[in-house]
Please model this.
Amino acid sequence: MVLEAILLGLSTGTYCAMYCVPVLAPFLAGGENPSYKRNGGLIGAFLGARLLTYFIFGAAFAALGLLANEWMDPVLARKLSVAAYIVCGLALLANSLGAKFPWGCQCRAPKLKRLGSDWVTAIVSGLAVGLHVCPPLWTAIVRSVFGGNGLPGFFYFVFFYVGTLPFFAPLFGIPFVTKRLPVIRNVARVAQFFVSLYFIFFLGVLAATSMFASQ
Model:
């Protein structure tokens, strides 16, 4: 069962990378303190927050009986993804404006700086990205709930998550690059600013408007 969980994570980890790397790469590369320790801590905070969201989802779906037919409602999945993009976009935008505005202007609002701190951004965006319920995640949730009661099911999901982690290994080398090519940090800050707007307005607000208009 453990081997199955790890292989499921390894074989489908590209789904995780697809949702997480566009958030993490510009955020981490644009950091003002590009140390390996801080970079690793922020990645850990992001991944830990995402795992927490998954556990909450698993418990909620099981309690609501949504796992009985082993089928995820695509409308619900889309609504959760839209919410994820909006929340994640707002977190990235607050970080960009509050801590390191991409064109060098320093924001003087202390509250916005605290709201957009790197650690808050890592945790909030990690929780938000966890709202993307992709098919591999749904499979892991169903298998963890029905594959064993209590600890066996819990560890199945943990090892599935462990199987996805190798896809994030390149992110730990970001300080190696940014310390040698400082221009990448400036490019990343600009990219983070525009990515946040894209998440909020195009993948969030406009997608939500289109979705509700079609109902």
About this structure: The CA atoms of residues 102 and 189 lie 5 Å apart. The mean pLDDT is 84. The two ends are 41 Å apart (CA to CA). The chain has nine helices and no strands.
